Amino acid sequence: MSDSTLYHDGNRALQDRFESRRIADRLEQLARPAFTDEDKSFIESAIYFFLATADDEGRPDCSFKGGPAGFVRVTGPSELAFPDYDGNGMFKSLGNLALNPNVALLFIALHGTPRRLRVNGTARIDRADPLLNQTVGAQMIVRVEARVIFPNCPRYIPTMQLVDPSPYTPRPGEEPIEPAWKSFDVFKDDIHPRQPTWKG
C-alpha cells in the first residue's frame, strides 16, 4: 500500500508507466487537510457540485447537487455541510452514505476564471442537525469531514455562461415548485410526500 495521502498502488503503477511520478509528487504538495480562506470563498459561492459515493460493495454513483450560493458551507477547519433537498426519492447518494461514508466532492467554476477543487473525506447524515433551521428547503444535512482537499487542473473546463438559476432552487418565503414529472401518469400515484422544511 502507498504511504501517500493522495495516491494508492494503482495510481503509482500508472505514474511509473507514464513517467509522471515526479509531477504527481509535486502536485500532492498542494493537497491539504484544512480549507483555506480561498477554498471557503469558492465553495460558499458555488451553486452546484458533483458528489461521488459508493455502496458497501464499492459500486459507485455520481450525483449533481445544486442550490443557491451558500448552500454549501464550510463549518469547520476541515468540515463542510450541505443540505439534502426534496428529490426523486431514490436516495442513491445518501443511501450509499448510510453504508459507506467515503465521499468525493468536485466543485467546478464554469464561468469566469475556470477552477476545480476536490474534497475527499467521510460524510454523516443528520435529520436533527442545527443547520436544518437555517437552511430553506433542507430535509437533511450532510456534513463532510475532509481527509484531503486539493485543487485540480482546469484546462479542459469550457467557458460557459449562466443563463438562469434553476426555478426549483428553494427560496426563502416561497412555496417549492413541483417538477412536471411528478404529475405524469406513470409516476403520480407513487409520489412520496414532501417533508416539512424550514421556509425562512
UniProtKB/TrEMBL annotation:
Pyridoxamine 5'-phosphate oxidase N-terminal domain sequence ranges: 35-138
Top-level taxonomic group: Bacteria
Pfam families per UniProt: PNPOx_N
UniProt name for this protein: Pyridoxamine 5'-phosphate oxidase family protein
